[in-house]
Write a structure and sequence with these properties.
With about 210 residues, this protein is an all-alpha fold. The chain has 6 helices and no strands.
């Protein structure tokens, strides 16, 4: 008999079965369908095209709404260009003469020469600026973008034409004013001799001793 019986291992309990849990099954990867990918791309592309097309339709509608304005602008520009071809060279000559140093020798015409210069200059400026503004309008309408439509940056175009409608009628009035000033100057110098003495820059020099 084994005296060290207290150190013997306990007998295993009968009828107990130890089970090992199986590892969780890993689902196989889902294969991507080339047909589904193509269909998704096509749907997304169509959505982008529809959005772009919708914007283009709205831009074109704004362009069509501005057609009468552009027609009036073109007719107005032609009238101004005709006036510029007739009066432009003459006004340039008037402006040049009004600043001629030789006219400084005549008395009592300094103020009239200044008014003549201002009148000729303002008329030339009115013509050139009006023609330039009107010539830009077709390009603005042609180059309209969706951002221009959203921010309404095209609404001033009819106002530009409206503001320039009376320029062709004003130009002849300006020209007549130049003619009136010219006549007054010519009347003042008709009986004069250019006797006014001018002080040249060299005359102001002080000789050192």
């Amino acid at each position: 008999m084994n005296e060290n019986w207290t150190k013997e291992a306990e007998p295993a309990e009968r009828g107990t079965v130890t089970r090992v849990a199986p590892a969780p099954a890993v689902a196989p990867p889902v294969e991507a369908s080339d047909d589904s990918l193509k269909a998704g791309i096509a749907a997304l592309g169509k959505a982008a095209h529809d959005a772009k097309r919708g914007n283009e339709v709205k831009i074109e509608a704004v362009r069509r709404s501005l057609t009468p304005t552009l027609k009036e602008s073109a007719a107005l520009q032609r009238r101004l260009e005709e006036l510029d071809s007739v009066y432009g060279p003459r006004l340039e000559e008037v402006r040049r003469l009004s600043r001629s140093p030789d006219l400084l020798r005549y008395h009592s015409i300094d103020d009239a020469r200044a008014r003549l210069f201002d009148c000729a200059s303002s008329t030339l400026t009115a013509l050139s600026s009006a023609i330039r503004c009107l010539s830009q309008l077709p390009h603005r309408v042609r180059d309209l973008t969706w951002n221009d439509i959203q921010t309404q940056r095209y609404l001033d175009i009819p106002d530009v034409v409206k503001g320039l409608r009376d320029v062709p009628d004003r130009v002849p009035r300006y020209v007549r004013e130049c003619e009136r000033i010219l006549e007054s100057i010519n009347a003042k110098i008709a009986g004069q001799k250019p006797t006014r003495q001018l002080i040249e820059a060299d005359d102001l020099r002080v000789d050192a001793f």
